[in-house]
Amino acid sequence: MFEARLVQGALLKKVLESIKDLLNEATWECAATGISLQAMDSSHVSLVALNLRSDGFDKYRCDRNVSLGMNLTNMAKIMKCASNDDVITIKAQDDADTVTFVFETPNQEKISDYEMKLMNLDTEHLGIPDTDYSCIVKMPSVEFQRICRDLSQIGDSVVISCTKEGVKFSAAGDLGTGNVKLAQNANVDKEEEAVVIEMQEPVSLTFACRYLNSFTKATPLAPQVQLSMSSDVPLVVEYKLEDMGYVRYYLAPKIED
Amino acid sequence: TSAQPKISSYFQKT
After folding, report:
1. Does A22 score more than 90 pLDDT?
2. Which residue is closest to B13 within chain A, CA to CA?
3. pLDDT at site A256
4. pLDDT tens for each residue of A167-225
5. Contact, A208 vs A219, CB < 8 A?
6. Which of A7, A70, A85, A22 is nearest to A249 (CA)?
7. CA-CA distance, B5 to A234, in Å (whole number)?
């Protein structure tokens, strides 16, 4: 028997919104430690990895590991039936071919349940090595979203250049060029407004706007985003979920032909 | 021009 109850059900809605652009289907791996998911987008260019720790749920029971393969478009249809202040419970029997979502209003006066068919997905799991990154940038997630959106008007790619002083995002296209520079700024009133750079050595890497824009669907999940970069290895874009886990996206830099 | 490598070429299957 698997059962996970989240009073803050809106969080689950946001998690789904953050991955459904990239993934049509995925397997939610449920274990005693929590729920995890790892999947590549259909073109195998980017990877999504997320973790929701069991202690972040208000009630969590997982007698044995279960793999819940889901069509995420269908899951999103069901999640749309939950209000933002609903309590959400996910339930599945061992070896079941369906999953049940229960939505309760905070006053318990309305309880809805939706049963969805599960899929048997042939999932490839990739091992992600621990990496010491040359640059780690922490910045407001809304700012990152804004920059990705703005620069994708200029070109298909964004060059992210990071030094100790700051981080620069650049794009070039038929109409001209655009640059956005952010200075390191840890002395702000609110922690979430800080731009903090941990640099071992400077990097300058090129990434596809299309994927960066998809990653920013996770913006509502966290006030800050963390970009980890090294030459010739995939960028990690991480959104930390308070007391719960993370959503991470991996994207390899473009290579000059 | 630049090429977009696949993520699967960076990480090993487990």
Report:
1. yes
2. A126
3. 83
4. 999 999 999 999 999 999 987 888 899 999 999 999 999 999 999 999 999 999 999 99
5. no
6. A22
7. 10
Residue A45 to residue B6, Cβ atoms within 8 A: yes
Q: Do A234 and B10 touch (CB under 8 A)?
A: yes
- State whether residue A174 is helix, strand or coil: coil
pLDDT at A81: 97
Out of A126, A157, A250, closest to residue B14 by CB:
A126
| Contact by Cβ (8 Å): A46, A76 | no
H/E run at residue A89 = strand A87-92
Answer yes or no: is pLDDT of B1 > 80.
no
Contact call for residues A55 and A245 (beta carbons, < 8 A): no
Contact map slice: A 90-109 vs B, CB within 8 A = none
ipTM, 2 dp:
0.95
| Residues contacting residue A175 through CB under 8 Å, at least 6 positions apart | A154
Radius of gyration of chain B (CA): 10
- Residue among A210, A248, A224 at smallest CA distance from A144: A224
What DSSP designation does A253 have? P
Question: Does the CB of A243 have a partner CB in chain B at under 8 Å?
Answer: no
Contacts of B11 by beta carbon, 8 Å cutoff, 6+ apart: A47, A126, A127, A128, A129, A234, A250
Contacts 24+ apart (CB under 8 A), A107-112: A112/A81, A112/A82
The alpha carbon of residue B14 and the mean position of all alpha carbons in its chain are separated, in whole angstroms, by: 15
3-class secondary structure, A93: coil
